[in-house]
Write a structure and sequence with these properties.
The structure is a homodimer of 424-residue chains. By secondary structure, the first copy, chain A, is an alpha/beta fold. Chain A folds into two domains: 2-228 and 403-417, Aldehyde Dehydrogenase, Chain A, domain 1 (3-Layer(aba) Sandwich); 232-379, Aldehyde Dehydrogenase, Chain A, domain 2, CATH 3.40.309.10. Chain A has helices at residues 2-23, 28-44, 46-62, 67-73, 77-91, 130-142, 156-172, 188-194, 210-219, 242-254, 270-286, 295-303, 333-343, 356-365; strands at residues 100-105, 111-118, 121-126, 146-150, 180-182, 203-207, 232-236, 263-269, 290-293, 309-310, 324-330, 348-352, 370-375, 392-394, 402-404, 410-421. Chain A is globular and about 70 Å long. Chains A and B meet through α10, α14, β13 and β16 of A and α10, α14, β13 and β16 of B. β16 of chain A pairs parallel with β13 of chain B.
Chain lengths: 424, 424
């Protein structure tokens, strides 16, 4: 049985590698034709997709999954239409492949071109979100990569139905059907096999909770690009425009509290805390945000009768993903920077200030993927960056940091033209 | 004991992380001053360095190391002068940190700048080469990264002496002394601890033999950039200039047979094999190269009385690192491409041809880091590329592919300027 699984997964990876070599030189128009075919097939296959989804939902109810999880699993005709629309949007994005990134000629006359090319074979490991199957497949396809998808068991039948559509769209437009393959089992042993196939698979992107990502990072011999969630800070400087600080903080904390670029902690400069904190607290409380305050901020909040609870040490590095905000007062800019570099997750931080010198120092010294000045943390996002698509937000530093769009799904190669040069 | 080691290595990594935050915003002139101080200290400390090296050499002789290995371990006053000169050369290279890689303004007015910044803390794991300690330390320092060095036991005393100089150079020029640290033990357990410190160390670069690299890749939870050696191909097309093919092949195979960008295999187009192969074989044999021929090439070589031995299947994927060359005849360009994509290591391949269409197809379809047209494979090298320095040649696809210079020791961050924008 285990040998069978190893053979099954290895054969999938070998076929993906072969398909990737074809895809790497496939013209844009042919890739786009496959995407448009898929966009057509999704609504046309609504019955089959909804029937497969119903099987997953039945199992979810039988397993007493909480209702918000069941909602995330659920496909509807409207959601299918949205999905088809997102496929059409990727089809019209520019093809990242083939762009010359740099070129130069050496004194000996060789000409060197650094050209963007697909990574090769990308493994996507994800949990129970039906849209991920299509989202990841189309971004890999557009960027010329073969994809191996391994989704969660809660959504297995839905994924299988989507994978069949992908195969059909590829085959009907003359692209290798193996360019997108789903691992047809959710057995953990199959995943373990996959993560060791480092001669066939070039990159693993896990999408899901921290335990999934950690499992993948610890067990993979293939390079992994991690998408951890974030512990993001907003620092209100002594020269902040208070109305702006309030607006940015409310947006960063409450617009979508469950995502990685939401703010989890507020730092306020001591010089303005007496004024700023009560105003910010009132606005946050009005939006239903609970404050977890350090001693200094708690005494100010208590004095004005603002709701809060004392913070525990764990709150200062916590990712709440909820309407909860840790609050601290810092004596100066440098302490704000040091606090962030120690306690944030390096995802996204914001400074609110009128003082450009302070802003530049903050942006230089804060060691995070995205550092905003007078803008919400919520802008760390591929669509907000104008990438047109996003496979995730990398919390790694190598290869891709921050939003990952089509360009970030590519690597490069060097193409050298000579006239017979040899090395002296 | 094991707990002590864990604490020791963790403390080193914590200090490195703190130093990296200082280095990230250290001006170029101050980094260069530390490098120039080091260049001054190396010859001035020759006695201490040579004495430390003598202890390693004594142990090497007692352990009966082969003479070429002992030679690699050996420092001389002339080698120290070369090393000091290489430090001065890095000091005058442009600082990669701070460069704006891209910038744009979004319709909502936020301005996004993608700025090159240091990776952070880099762990270098290497074997018995004394120059690696200085080479890697200075490239990390110039690019604003803190370095943790873990060298082989054969060169431990020499490394310790170099590390002391590095500390002195940093301290005397006011940079954090923890910016470069040597793990003061070659205990494998210390390495295992190091490779798991993924919250403090951001990148591991192993430099050494395949077994070392594999060990690191399999045991690290920190992203690894691998520098495997290469199985590089030269393809002589039917439209090749034969004199050029000979010159490129001789250079690629014999200029330095023990390195990763040396050619290990020759493919010849069947249409020209009868003419080309005898001429190429004669030139190679004259340089002492042994040919391992497939059936088709063996029969041509036999007919003209050229020395060769029959190839085994293993020869067609072998990295000889010696004056040995596998030889095969291919019926056409596409077979050459498919053969290379199956059997090469994806490092560097060359086509020799007068036919630009064939050359472009080869450069597009061959999935290797560097693909040359009418130029030697030996050009896959940071100095030959004009990078001014090289920490190695990456055989990975993520982050860096091919020669890694100072730019490749950096990542980027996004700096966003707003005027109060929030996400709608």
């Amino acid at each position: 049985m285990s040998t069978d699984l190893v053979q099954l997964v290895t054969a999938i990876a070998q076929r993906a590698r072969a398909a990737s070599l074809v895809l790497a030189t496939t013209p844009t128009a042919r890739k786009d034709a496959a995407l448009l075919k898929l966009a057509e097939l999704i609504p046309a296959s609504a019955d089959a997709l909804l029937a497969a989804n119903a099987r997953d939902l039945e199992a979810a109810r039988a397993n007493n999954l909480p209702s918000h999880q069941i909602d995330r699993l659920t496909l509807t005709p409207a959601r299918l239409d949205q999905l088809a629309e997102s496929v059409r949007q990727v089809a019209v994005l520019p093809d990242p492949v083939g762009t010359t990134l740099e070129e130069w000629t050496r004194p000996n006359g060789i000409h060197i071109r650094k050209r963007r090319v697909p990574i090769g074979v990308i493994g996507i490991i994800y949990e129970a979100r039906p849209n991920v199957t299509i989202d990841c497949a189309i971004l890999c396809l557009k960027s010329g990569n073969a994809a191996i998808l391994r989704g969660g068991k809660e959504i297995f039948h839905t994924n299988t139905a989507f994978a069949a559509l992908l195969t059909q769209a590829l085959a009907e437009t003359g692209l290798p059907a193996d360019a997108v393959q789903l691992i047809p089992t959710t057995d953990r042993a199959a995943l373990n096999t996959l993560l060791k196939l480092d001669t066939l698979i070039h990159c693993i992107i896990p999408r899901g909770g921290e335990s999934l990502i950690r499992f993948v990072a610890e067990n993979s011999t293939i390079p992994v690009i991690k998408h951890y969630t974030g512990v993001c800070f907003v620092y209100v400087d002594k020269d902040a425009d208070l109305a702006m600080a309030e607006s940015i903080l409310i947006n960063a904390k409450t617009q979508r509290p469950g995502v990685c670029n939401t703010a989890e902690q507020l730092l306020v400069h001591a010089d303005v805390a007496e004024t700023a904190l009560p105003q910010l607290a009132a606005a946050l409380t009005a939006k239903g945000v609970q404050l977890r305050a350090d001693n200094d901020s708690a005494s100010i909040l208590a004095r004005v009768g603002a709701a809060h609870t004392p913070a525990t040490p764990a709150d200062f590095t916590a990712e709440f993903l909820d309407l909860i905000l840790a609050v601290r007062i810092v004596p100066d800019l440098e302490t704000a920077i040091a606090t962030i570099n120690r306690d944030s997750s390096g995802h996204t931080e914001a400074i609110v200030t009128r003082d450009e010198t302070a802003a530049r120092r903050f942006q230089d010294a804060v060691d995070s993927a995205v550092v905003t000045w007078n803008a919400s943390t919520r802008f760390n996002d591929g669509f907000e960056f104008g990438f047109g698509a996003e496979i995730g937000i990398s919390t790694d530093r190598l290869h891709a940091r921050g939003p990952m769009g089509l360009n970030e799904l590519c690597t490069y190669k060097y193409v050298i033209d000579g006239t017979g040069q040899v090395r002296g």
